[in-house]
Amino acid sequence: MNPEINPVVHEPTRVSLTQFVRYFLWLGTVGFGGPIALAGHMQQDLVDDRGWVGKEDYLEGLALAQLAPGPLAAQLAIYLGYIRAGAFGATAVGVAFVLPSFIMVLGLSAAYVRFGGLPWMQGMFYGIGAAVIGIIARSAFKLTKLTLGKDKLLWAVFVLLAVSTAWTSQEIIWFFLLGGVVNLLVKAFPSLLPARSALSLVFVPPPVATFGAGGTLLQIFMYFAKAGMFVFGSGLAVVPFLYGGVVQGHHWLTDHQFVDAVAVAMITPGPVVITVTFIGYLVAGVAGASAAALGIFLPVYLVVVCLAPSYKRWAKNPQLNAFVRGVTAAATGAIAGAVVVLARRSVYDLPTILICLLSLAILFRWKIPEPVLIACAAVAGLLFHHA
Q1: N or C, where is the chain less crowded by C-beta within 10 Å?
Q2: For the CA atoms of 195, 197, 198, 201, what is the dihedral angle to 10 degrees?
Q3: Is 232 helix (H, G, I), strand (E, B) or coil?
Q4: Residue 310: exposed, middle, or buried by beta-carbon count in 10 A (0-12, 13-18, 19+)?
C-alpha cells in the first residue's frame, strides 16, 4: 500500500512592505524595454530569485493585466502590491513604480521647453523621431505575432483598424469596442446574456460627457482617464488615441511635438504611457503633467482594486476572453496604423529614412536596448540635421 504523496507548496517569503515597495521604486528607476520586459523582470526577481511572490499569484496578476484595460506592467505591479498589502499596498507600489519615470519626464519636459528652439535640440529629435518610428513598427510586429496567431477574424479586425487609423489619423474608440463585440458574438454566440455581463466588466463608459469642459486641468485629467481605459497590453496602444485627441482634437501639440513626446517615453524607464506627462507639461506645466499622469494611471489602479477580490470568479469567462481578444487585435491594428501616421511627420527625407530603416533592421537582428538605439539616433540627427 503506497502512502499518499502530497505536493509540496512553497509559501512566498514574507518581507516588509517597505522592502517590497523599494523593489518597485528600483524597477521604475532602471527598468527599460517595454511591458513584456518589465513583467519579465518581476517574474525573475520576485518569483524565481527572491521568492517574495508565489508563482500562482504572479500568473493570476499577469492574466488580469492582459484581460483588463490599462498598461500591462503598471497593472501587474499594482496587483502584486494588492496581494501583498491590500489597497494600501497597491497604492504604495503603484506610486513607487511610476514616480521615478514621472520625475525624469518632468525634467526632460522642462529642458525641452527651455532648449527646444535651439539647433542642437532640434537636431537630436530629428534623429530620435525617425528611430522611434522604427521602434514602434517593431513593437507592432511583435504584438501581431503574439496576439493574432492564425485567427482569421482577429486578422480582419487588425486590418480594419490599421487601415482606418492610417487613413483618418483619428481616435477610433468605438472601432476598438466593435472589434471586441464582433469577436464576442462570433466566438461566444450561444451565451449572449453572460456575454453582456462580461462586457460590462471590461468597458464602463468614462464620465467625460458628465463633467463637461470646466477648465484646462479637468480637461487634461478627463481626456487621459478616457485614454487609459483603452490601453490593452502595450502602452503603445494609447498612441493612436492620443494623436487624434492631442494633435487634431484639442490642438495641444503639433505633429513634431507629439512624436517628441513618444520619444521621451522611449528614453526613460518605466511604463511607456508616461509620455502623457510630457504632453501635460507642454499644455499646463507641472500641474498639467500631474493631471495627465493621474488621469492615465487612476483607471488602472481602480480596475485592480475593484476587480482583484472577485478575479478568480470571472477570469476564465469565455465571453470576457473573447471580447478582450477582439479589443487587443483592434489595439494592435491601431498601433500598426499609427506607424504610418507618425512616419508622415518624422520620416520625410533621406537621412530620416536611413535612420528609421537602420533602427528597424538593428532591432530585428540584435537585442539592443532602446535607450542605446535612441542615443545613437540622436547623435546621427545632430550630424545630419541641416548638414
Answers
A1: N
A2: 160
A3: strand
A4: exposed
pTM for this predicted structure: 0.72
pLDDT tens-digit map of 239-256: 777 877 888 888 899 888
Residue given cell 510586429 in the structure block: 141
Measured in whole angstroms, the distance separating CA 221 from the mean position of its chain's CA atoms is 17
Residue with cell 517569503: 13
CA distance 156 to 289: 37
Could you report the per-residue pLDDT of 298-349, keeping only the tens digit for each? 988 998 888 888 776 666 677 777 777 787 787 778 778 878 877 877 788 8
Residue matched to cell numbers 469596442: 177
Phi, then psi, of 349 in degrees rounded to 5: -145, 180
d(CA 329, CA 308): 24
181 neighbors 188 (Cβ within 8 angstroms) = no
Outline where the chain has alpha helix (H): 17-30, 34-42, 55-67, 72-115, 119-147, 152-168, 173-187, 192-202, 208-211, 216-228, 238-242, 255-266, 275-307, 311-314, 318-346, 350-365, 370-384
Distance from C-alpha of 265 to C-alpha of 256, rounded to nearest angstrom: 15
